User: Fold this.
Amino acid sequence: MRVNEATLDLIKRFEGLRLKAYLDAAGVWTICYGHTSRAGPPKVKPGMKLTKVECDEILQRDIEKFADQVAKAIKPEILERLNENQFGALVSFAYNVGIGNLRRSSVLRAVNEGRFSDVPRLLMRWTKAGGKRLRGLVRRRRAEGRLWLTPVGGKRPPLPAIVRHKKDELATRPRLAAAWSAFLASLITLIAAFWREIMSWLGF
Assistant:
């Protein structure tokens, strides 16, 4: 299965383009769109510089490798049921956390068991690095979850799917859910008070 433009755009957006080699958060030499020596050639070295064209070519090769590994990790009968966006969400996830982590994850287990509706929620478990929840990873997992839910050719998931995804995410974070509940309750109270003021002003 090919990796579509929506997936490539997602990966490029979250990886970012760096034309000069740098040490990532784990101390690994990295360049372009998150390319490291572990992904294959070219080997990343200190002081290394590349052009955007070269980086785009490297990303394409890296993505093809990850796509092949992801496809092999999925049961053939399940792979046939996935659309391009669902497959792409898994490729982006694997590109970020590594194919080994994908193979061991509850995300892949849910996919291979046909529990497709559980995937966006399970992706949200992978938002920590070094024991800390990172905002960038939260945004990426949400984006991958929404890509999973988006019909091929569509720009966004159906509203019911978004609501269900948000509900599932809040259910895994009690404190955040409580904060949202308190905010909504305050908002409803404020709207009700405002409405009473308007009715009073109108003489009702």
